[in-house]
Design goal:
The protein has 16 helices and 14 strands. By secondary structure, the chain is an alpha/beta fold. The strands form 3 sheets. Strands 4-5-6-7-8-9-10-11 form an 8-stranded parallel sheet. Strands 3-12-13-14 form a 4-stranded antiparallel sheet, with no helix packed on it. Strands 1-2 form a two-stranded antiparallel ribbon. The chain is globular and about 70 Å long. Bound molecules: N-(iminomethyl)-L-glutamic acid and fe (iii) ion.
Length: about 400
């Protein structure tokens, strides 16, 4: 997707030269340089080739499910009211604490397989349902293991500031101290997290709380990202952008100051239409204002048991177009180029070009818009991961 280039950056009758794990050259077939003319060839006859898809925001590892809470919401109870009554995130905390690491890996693996069957090659996975050191560690170890066992590139976020654990009810400052003084240093020391995330919302943590957490995380070398302005506008996105966050996510209530700060910092907006749809929200993120300000928009599943039990990035694309007004081209960029940037991986992933890792997805479609268009179809043909065909 080159500015001013062909829509979707499409190259017809293209060829890709792959050397080891990386792309050495790509362009039209009739222009393959002499150097590669004698290389062994494989035909991708008729397939559309895209970068392997990237989900930059998931809560893939968790215990249990919340189907019964969904039934309550269908009867009219709100997500926030259920959370305040001790359900919501805290009910998944109880199920996750009760699960073993093996059990978490096994249940998450099924969800991961749904994603990879639709061309996914890289996924971000958050903790945040343990809310104490041992259980946050258990979640992050499970996420790292999923990467090793599946061959998918897994990046992890420590989300200790997701909700106040029941044993700290009424003692938020004490919990923040545990996060900054005990949990973050131990998790960073073990190399279990690449980023630090938080839930900045009236029912969770304030921008001031998150600033304290982020200062500790940044000092330990973690990247920053934030759930911000999902249910109300608290100014979290502006704070996070000013601290150099890679992404701010959700953003339904984002205001002009937040957009300006994100544009200035190059912070990506991660749009999560699965949560908007599943919570039957009314307020949409300010897509046109983000576009006008030049804020890159990624798109992700937010796969989690409460607000978005979604395991399809193709469906996320469709929801992004239908509900938020993204173009299919923006939706595809949102789960490739912009998702890579939201994870700080743009040097290696998310686009096709010489020097990039050869993580490719092959699709049986005539035109890229068909990826976002179909509801429930799976046109994925096959995948190349780090230069090797997946069998
Ligand atoms: O991204 N917003 C906060 N966290 C999740 C929901 C988690 C849950 O309900 O279990 C989200 O939507
Ligand atoms: Fe989330």
């Amino acid at each position: 997707m080159v500015p001013g280039g062909a829509p979707y950056g499409l190259v017809r009758d293209g060829a890709i030269a792959i050397d080891g794990a990386r792309i050495a050259w790509l362009g039209p077939k009739h222009k393959v340089p002499e150097d590669y003319a004698a290389w062994p060839r494989e035909s991708a006859s008729g397939a559309l080739v895209t970068p392997a898809l990237i989900d930059c925001h998931t809560h893939l590892v968790h215990g249990g499910n919340r189907a019964s809470e969904w039934e309550r919401r269908l009867q009219g109870e709100s997500y926030a009211a259920i959370a305040r009554s001790g359900g919501g995130i805290l009910s998944t905390v109880a199920a996750t604490r009760a699960a073993s690491e093996d059990g978490l890996v096994a249940s998450a693996r099924k969800r991961l397989d749904d994603f990879t069957a639709q061309g996914l090659g890289t996924i971000e996975i958050k903790s945040g349902y343990g809310l104490d050191l041992e259980n946050e560690r258990k979640m992050l170890r499970a996420a790292r293991r999923l990467g090793r066992e599946s061959g998918v590139t897994v990046k992890t976020s420590f989300l200790g500031a997701h909700a106040l654990p029941p044993e700290y009810a009424g003692r938020k400052d004490a919990y923040i101290r545990v996060i900054t003084e005990e949990m973050l240093p131990a998790i960073a020391e073990e190399g279990l997290a690449d980023y630090c995330d938080g839930f900045c919302e009236t029912i969770a943590f304030s921008p001031a709380d998150m600033r304290t957490v982020f200062e500790a995380a940044r000092a330990l070398g973690l990247g920053l990202r934030l759930h911000a302005e999902q249910l109300s506008n608290s100014g979290g996105a502006q704070m996070a952008a000013e601290m150099g966050a890679l992404s701010c996510d959700h953003l339904e209530y984002l205001d002009a100051d937040g957009i300006r700060a994100m544009a200035r910092a190059g912070t990506r907006a991660v749009l999560l239409p699965g949560a908007f749809y599943f919570l039957r929200e009314q307020r949409k993120p300010p897509v046109q204002a983000l576009r006008d300000a030049g804020v890159g928009m990624a798109l992700a599943s937010d796969c989690n048991p409460g607000s978005s039990p979604l395991t399809s990035l193709l469906l996320a694309m469709n929801l992004g177009c239908t509900l938020f007004g993204l173009t299919p081209e923006e939706a595809l960029a949102g789960i490739t180029r912009e998702a890579a940037a939201a994870l700080g991986l743009e040097a290696d992933r998310g686009t096709l070009g010489a020097g990039k890792i050869a993580d490719l997805a092959l699709w049986d479609v005539d035109h890229p818009a068909q990826l976002a268009y179909a509801l429930g179809a799976n046109p994925h043909r096959s995948q190349i991961r780090a230069g090797c065909w997946l069998t």
